[in-house]
C-alpha cells in the first residue's frame, strides 16, 4: 500500500525472507540510513506450525554419549507414535554417526535414512520418493535451508542440536567477541530456517520439536536483544 511506501518518496524496496532482522540491516551498513524496517505476520496460522520445546538433553561435546542416548530414546518413542508420518531430524554429521550406532539393531531402524556429504542428494531424493505411509525419517545434516517438505513429505521434524556457529573458527570467534548479539542472531536465524522446512503454506501443517536444552540460553539471549520475531514466537507452545 502507498501508505507504507508513498509514490515519489521511496526509491528502493527490498523484499526478503522472514529470516532477516535489524542485525542484518546493521551488517549491510544501512542502520544510519533512511531505512524503514517492516516485520510482517506469517501467512500460516501459528497453530498449524507449532514448535514444542522438549529439552530432553544438553547437547555439548562433554556429554556426547548421554545426549546421544537421550535423543535416540526420544526418536524411537516419537517414531512409534507416528508410524505413518514422514519426519526430519536436524543433526550434525558427527551427531548422525553416533545416533546411527546407537540405533543399530532396533527393529524400526529401517525407517531411518542417514547420509554422508557425498550421498546427501541421493538420500534426499530417496526420502522424497518414499510414500507417506512408509513413515521414513531423514536424519539430515546441514538441511536448515533449501528443503521444501510440503504436505505429506514432512509432518514432523526435530532439531536435535542448536546450530551454534563454531567458535573454533577465528573469524566467528572475533565477530562474536565484538558483537555477542550477532552470534545470537546467527544461531537463531538457523533455528528459524530449520523450523520452516515443513508446513510450507496456509493449508499445510507440521510439528517441530526442539530437543537441545541449550535452546534456553539462545531464547533468553535473543529475547534480551529483541531479536525474536513475534510471528515465530507465537508458534512456540507452552514455553516462557
What do these coordinates show?
With 240 residues, the chain is of the alpha/beta class. 35% of the residues lie in helices and 13% in strands. It contains eight helices and seven strands; from the N terminus they run αβαβαβαββααβααβ. α4 (120-129) links the parallel β3 and β4 (137-141). α2 (64-81) packs across α3 (93-103), α5 (170-178) packs across α6 (180-195) and α6 packs across α7 (215-224). The two termini are 35 Å apart. The model has no long low-confidence stretch (mean pLDDT 92).
Helix percentage range: 25-40%
User: Which structural category fits the helices and strands?
Assistant: alpha/beta
Shape: globular
Number of helices: 8
Low-confidence stretches: none
Query: Would you report the number of β strands?
Result: 7
Question: Kindly, what is the distance between the CA atoms of the first and last residues, rounded to a whole number of angstroms?
Answer: 35 Å
- The quaternary state of the protein chains shown equals single chain
Helix/strand order:
HEHEHEHEEHHEHHE
What gyration radius follows from the Cα positions, in whole Å? 19 Å
Largest beta-sheet characterization = 7 strands, parallel
Provide mean pLDDT, rounded.
92
How large a portion of the residues is in β-strands, by DSSP E?
A: 5-15%
Main-sheet strand order equals: 3-4-2-5-6-1-7
Sum this structure up briefly:
The protein has 240 residues and is of the alpha/beta class.
